[in-house]
Specification:
The protein is α/β, with parallel strands linked by helices. It has 2 domains: 3-233 and 512-528; 240-494, 4-Layer Sandwich (Nitrilase/N-carbamoyl-D-aminoacid amidohydrolase), CATH 3.60.110.10. It has 17 helices and 13 strands. The protein has helices spanning 3-16, 26-36, 43-61, 78-103, 116-124, 128-149, 169-172, 175-178, 180-203, 207-232, 253-256, 262-277, 296-308, 407-413, 435-450, 504-508, 511-528; strands spanning 240-248, 283-285, 312-322, 328-337, 343-348, 387-389, 394-400, 420-425, 454-458, 464-466, 472-473, 486-488, 491-494. The strands form 2 sheets. Strands 1, 2, 3, 4, 5, 12 and 13 form a 7-stranded mixed sheet that branches. It has a 6-stranded mixed sheet with strand order 6-7-8-9-10-11, covered by helices on one side. Helix 15 (435-450) links the parallel strand 8 (420-425) and strand 9. Helix 1 (3-16) runs antiparallel to helix 2 (26-36), helix 1 (3-16) runs parallel beside helix 3 and helix 9 (180-203) runs antiparallel to helix 10 (207-232). The longest helix is centred in the first third of the chain and has 26 residues, at 78-103. The protein is globular, with a radius of gyration of 25 Å. The two termini are 24 Å apart.
C-alpha cells in the first residue's frame, strides 16, 4: 500500500472513532499514521497526504449529508455537492497539520525527500528530547486547527477528535479545565509519540529510547485519568429537582416544508404533549421546527393546552421583527411561555447554519440563493438570554440547532446561577442516521465544560439529558428506536446556590486552545521567515 493509501487508511481510522462505529481506540492511531505518511516528503506532498486523510475522514463520517431531502431544480445534486465540498474544505485543516508538523521538525530534518529507510534514519538521528518536544508541538498545532475550524466561515465544530472518547468518563473530565480541545491534544500527543516509538522498534530497538519518547504523554494521561476519577466519584446529592417533559414528534423534513401538513403535524405535537403533561411536569419542551408558524391560532392552542395542564413551555419558531434601522428581520428564536400562556422571554439564535439558515456573500453573489432551500435566510441574534422560571427558582438557557456543538457558544449561555442548558434541535434534515448521535456526543462536552446538566429535545433523536459528568441519561426510545415519536419526563437534579461553582473552562474559556494557537502561530511566523518556505506547494 502506497503513502496515499496509508493516508486514506488514517482517515478511515479517524472516522471509525465516531458514530456509527464508535471504536474509540482508532482515534489514538489515526493522527500518528497520518503524520508519518509524510515522513521524508517535501512540503507540498506532505500537505497533499494530510489532505487525502482529511478528505477521506470527513467523507466517511459526514455521509449523512446525502440524506437531505433537497433537490436543486429537480436534481438531487445539492446534498452530494455539499458533502464533497464540506469534506474537501475540512480536509484542508489536516493537510495543513501534516505540512506544518514536518516544517517544524527539529533541524529541518523533516524537509528533505529521502527513501523511506533513509527518512527513518534521519528522523531517529535527532535527539530524543527534541523529538519528544516536537510531539507536543504537533498536538498544539492540531488543537489550534480545531479552534480555527470552529470559527472560520461561521465555524464547523463537528467531530472534534476529543469527542470520540465520550464513553471514557475519567479521561474526558479534563474538559472542565481545557474544554474538549484538551482531550484532542492528549490523543494527538500520545499518537505522535507512539508513532516515533514504532520507528525506534523497527530500526533501533532500545528500551531507554522508547521510554524517553513515550514517558511524558503516558504520565500526562495517568494524571488526567486520576483527576477524572475524582470528578466522577463522590458527586454531591442534588438539593432539588425539576421535572421536564421532552417531546420528540419525529416529523419528516419533507412534511415540515409542506405547508399543507402544518395543522396535522402540530396536532401530533399537541397529542404527545397532552400525554406528557398528564405526568405533571414543571417544564414542557418542544424541539426546533415543532411549531409551523407562531401565529394567533397557534398561540391560542398553546394557551388552551397550558390552561388544562399548567406548566412552563419552551419552543422554537420563526420570529419576524423590525430592527432599530427599520429594516425587516427574521430570526430563528426560542420562546419561554409561563403557565398562563404569556411569553416571558425570547432568544434569537446566534450561530446560523451556512447555506441552511444564511447565505454568505449574498449581496455580491446573489445567484447562491438558487443553490439552497432557504430563500433569504435568517438574521443572526446578538446575545445569549437566560430564561427565568420564577416560581421554580430555576434559570436555564437555550441552544438552538447545532449551537450545542460550539464550546464558546455554550459557555456564553452559562452564568453563575444557570441551573441547566437546553438544546432544541431538528435533525430530521438527515433522516435516521449517525448525525443524531454525533451531535449528541458533542453536546456531552458542553455539560462537562460548564458543570451543568444539558437537556436535549430533538425532532427525531437523540432526545435525552446529560449530567455534568457527561453521562447520557434517559434516552427517548420508541419501539427500540431512538428516531421514533414519543416523549420522556426525566427529573433533572439541580444544585443549590452553595453547591454551584463555575468550572475553570466556564470561567476562563478557551485559554488552553488559544495558548496552542499562539504557540503554533509563532512557529508559523518563524518557518515562513525562512527563505526556502513559501507554504504548501
Amino acid at each position: 500500500m502506497g503513502r496515499y493509501g496509508l493516508a486514506a487508511l488514517a482517515g478511515l481510522l479517524l472516522s471509525a472513532a465516531f458514530a456509527p462505529w464508535e471504536v474509540a481506540g482508532a482515534a489514538w492511531a489515526g493522527p500518528g499514521l497520518m503524520l508519518f505518511c509524510g515522513l521524508g516528503q517535501r512540503g507540498g506532498r506532505a500537505f497533499r497526504l494530510g489532505w487525502v486523510a482529511g478528505f477521506v475522514h470527513f467523507l466517511s463520517s459526514l455521509y449523512w449529508l446525502l440524506a437531505m431531502p433537497f433537490a436543486w431544480h429537480g436534481m438531487p445534486l445539492a446534498p452530494a455537492l455539499a458533502w464533497i465540498a464540506l469534506s474537501a474544505y475540512c480536509g484542508l485543516y489536516l493537510g495543513l497539520w501534516v505540512w506544518f508538523c514536518w516544517k517544524i521538525f527539529p533541524d529541518g530534518a523533516g524537509e528533505p525527500e529521502f527513501s523511506l529507510v533513509a527518512a527513518v534514519d534521519q528522523f531517529l538521528s535527532i535527539d530524543w528530547m527534541k523529538r519528544a518536544s516536537w510531539a507536543i508541538l504537533c498536538a498544539a498545532a492540531w488543537t489550534a486547527l480545531e479552534m480555527a475550524r470552529a470559527r472560520v466561515l461561521s465555524g464547523f465544530p463537528w467531530n472534534f477528535l476529543g469527542a470520540s472518547q465520550y464513553a471514557m468518563l475519567p479521561l474526558i473530565q479534563i474538559a472542565s479545565i481545557t474544554g474538549v480541545h484538551g482531550v484532542s491534544f492528549v490523543i494527538v500527543w500520545f499518537s505522535v509519540a507512539v508513532g516515533g516509538v514504532m520507528l525506534i522498534l523497527a530500526r533501533r530497538p532500545s528500551t531507554l529510547a522508547i521510554w524517553g519518547q513515550a514517558a511524558l504523554p503516558l504520565l500526562a494521561l495517568g494524571w488526567i485519568v486520576a483527576y477524572g476519577m475524582t470528578k466522577t466519584w463522590g458527586i454531591p446529592a442534588a438539593s432539588r429537582q425539576v421535572k421536564v417533559a421532552l417531546i420528540q414528534p419525529s416529523i419528516p423534513q419533507t412534511l415540515i416544508w409542506d405547508v399543507k401538513e402544518n395543522a396535522a403535524r402540530f396536532q401530533q405535537v399537541l397529542a404527545l404533549s397532552e400525554k406528557a403533561l398528564a405526568t405533571k411536569p414543571d417544564l414542557l419542551l418542544w424541539p426546533e421546527s415543532a411549531v409551523p408558524e407562531f401565529d394567533p391560532e397557534i398561540a391560542q392552542a398553546i394557551q388552551r393546552l397550558l390552561a388544562n395542564h399548567p406548566a412552563w413551555l419552551i419552543f422554537c419558531a420563526d420570529s419576524p421583527e423590525s430592527l432599530p434601522s427599520g429594516e425587516a428581520a427574521d430570526f430563528n428564536s426560542s420562546f419561554l411561555v409561563n403557565p398562563t400562556g404569556a411569553i416571558e422571554a425570547v432568544y434569537h439564535k446566534r450561530r446560523l447554519v451556512i447555506f441552511g439558515e444564511y447565505i454568505p456573500l449574498l449581496r455580491w453573489l446573489p445567484f447562491l440563493k438558487w443553490l439552497t432551500p432557504i430563500g433569504e435566510g435568517f438574521t443572526r441574534g446578538e446575545r445569549a438570554v437566560q430564561f427565568n422560571l420564577t416560581n421554580l427558582s430555576t434559570k436555564t438557557s437555550v441552544l438552538i440547532c447545532f449551537e450545542d456543538m460550539f464550546p464558546q457558544e455554550a459557555r456564553d449561555h452559562v452564568q453563575d446561577d444557570t441551573d441547566f442548558l437546553i438544546n432544541l434541535t431538528n435533525d430530521g434534515w438527515f433522516g435516521n442516521g449517525a448525525e443524531q448521535k454525533q451531535q449528541a456526543v458533542g453536546a456531552i462536552f458542553r455539560a462537562i465544560e460548564n458543570g451543568v446538566p444539558l437537556v436535549r429535545c430533538c425532532n427525531n433523536g437523540l432526545t435525552c439529558w446529560i449530567d455534568p459528568q457527561g453521562r447520557i441519561r434517559e434516552i427517548e426510545d420508541a419501539g427500540g428506536s431512538i428516531y421514533g415519536p414519543g416523549f420522556i419526563t426525566p427529573q433533572i437534579p439541580l444544585r443549590g446556590p452553595g453547591q454551584r461553582a463555575p468550572t475553570i473552562y466556564n470561567r476562563y474559556g478557551d485559554w488552553f486552545g488559544w495558548s496552542c494557537c499562539a504557540t503554533s502561530g509563532l512557529l508559523l511566523l518563524f518557518i515562513l521567515r525562512r527563505p526556502d518556505v513559501v507554504g504548501p506547494s
